[in-house]
From TrEMBL:
Keywords recorded for this protein, A-Z: Metal-binding, Oxidoreductase, Zinc
Family (UniProt): Belongs to the zinc-containing alcohol dehydrogenase family. Quinone oxidoreductase subfamily.
Enoyl reductase (ER) domain location: 13-335
InterPro entries given in the database record: ADH-like_N (IPR013154), ADH_Zn_typ-1 (IPR014182), ER (IPR020843), GroES-like_sf (IPR011032), NAD(P)-bd_dom_sf (IPR036291), YIM1/Zinc_Alcohol_DH_Fams (IPR050700)
Source species of the chain: Photobacterium galatheae
GO molecular function annotation: oxidoreductase activity; zinc ion binding
PANTHER family according to UniProt: ALCOHOL DEHYDROGENASE RELATED, RETICULON-4-INTERACTING PROTEIN 1, MITOCHONDRIAL
Record protein name field: Zinc-type alcohol dehydrogenase-like protein
SMART domains the UniProt entry points to: PKS_ER (SM00829)
Length: 338
């Protein structure tokens, strides 16, 4: 089967950073299914894993943690899928990735693809959808029914992949007052189009901008960019008994002391936790992907695909990695077809 892989961790400008290769098609057993990959998406995690480092892989390593495709084989323990089903998922960072014609994945972290979306449109949603859903409804504990007193959320980095889904979920499902950060006119427009009530600039003083808009504090904060850089501002503007969640690792320890007098909380979100540790509730990811599919079918959520490349090969994947590496992507970049 065709695949795109690496053996050395090189700058993306190097043609050997990602290479076209041939690999044997894998077999499945247990809870696994075999999927014929028809579309993939590139995320910041792909770029971080591929980033230059002094390391060599003894065998080609396939990256990729977003996919949409068709089930072609199922393991003996699989009951929720059969051959011919169209699926989408974000995979498992501890296993080979989705940048290959055929891919093996645990069926418990897989969802039914939204039928109203193309394979490419669907491939934009799994990783960011899972991350946004878990961050909002599980880590921050926001009720998903929308029946609560008006509360506010600040989403730092609203125009990226996760932010693009989080804005929709926070506004359409949780019915929160959504403030998203965006620093360019095109990103401001994108955030407002997705459902943000207003935008502020994350390159300027967050507290001053929020206060000027009538928000001296906010109930929730979802940080999708530069946790350490925004930490002082977040601990200042979070409401007493509020909650902060971040998906971005910090290069330095975070000072929790400012949260103590507020009885405010901080929690991390890492969407690979369930598959990495084989948690008892790992099937929740498959369930939430099915819920996202239903929201798409009811026009509550929209795909966040903004750039589409074809076919899936090393040249186009290098282009996609370069786009994501720049750090100013709006929505998602997707590749489809072999």
């Amino acid at each position: 089967m065709k695949a795109v892989a690496l053996t050395h961790y090189l700058p993306i400008s190097n043609p050997d950073s990602l290479m076209d290769i041939e690999l044997p098609a894998p077999a499945v057993s247990g809870h696994d299914i075999l999927v014929r990959i028809e579309a993939i998406s590139v995320n910041p995690v792909d770029v971080k894993v591929r980033a230059p480092k002094d390391k060599t892989e003894p065998r080609p390593r396939v990256l990729g943690w977003d996919a949409a495709g068709t089930v072609v084989a199922v393991g003996e323990d699989v009951t929720q899928f059969q051959t011919g089903d169209e699926v989408y998922y974000a995979g498992d960072i501890t296993r080979p990735g989705t940048n290959s014609e055929y891919h093996v994945v645990d069926a418990r972290i897989v969802g039914k693809k939204p039928q109203s979306l193309s394979m490419a449109e669907a491939a934009a949603l799994p990783l960011t959808g899972i991350t946004a859903w878990e961050a909002l409804f599980e880590r921050l504990g926001i009720p998903a029914d929308g029946f609560q007193s008006p509360k506010s959320i600040l989403i730092i980095g609203g125009a990226g992949g996760v932010g693009s889904v989080a804005i929709q979920l926070a506004s359409q499902i949780a019915r929160l007052q959504v403030i998203a950060t965006a620093s360019r006119e095109e990103t401001k427009h994108w955030c407002l189009e997705l459902g943000a009530d207003l935008t502020i600039n994350h390159r300027l003083n967050l507290a001053e901008q929020l206060a000027a808009q009538g928000y001296p504090t906010v109930d929730y904060i979802l940080c999708l960019n530069d946790t350490a850089g925004h930490w002082a501002a977040m601990t200042h503007i979070i409401k007493p008994q509020g909650m902060i969640c971040s998906i971005v690792e910090s290069p330095e320890p975070l000072d929790m002391e400012p949260l103590k007098s507020k009885s405010a909380g901080f929690v991390w979100e890492f969407m690979f936790t369930r598959s990495m540790y084989q948690t008892e509730d790992m099937a929740e990811q498959g369930k939430l992907l099915n819920q996202i599919s239903q929201l798409v079918e009811h026009d509550t959520l929209q795909t966040t695909m903004r750039k589409h490349l074809t076919p899936i090969n090393a040249d186009n994947l290098r282009k996609a990695h370069a786009l994501v590496e720049q750090g100013n992507m709006i929505g998602k970049v997707v590749l489809s077809g072999w």
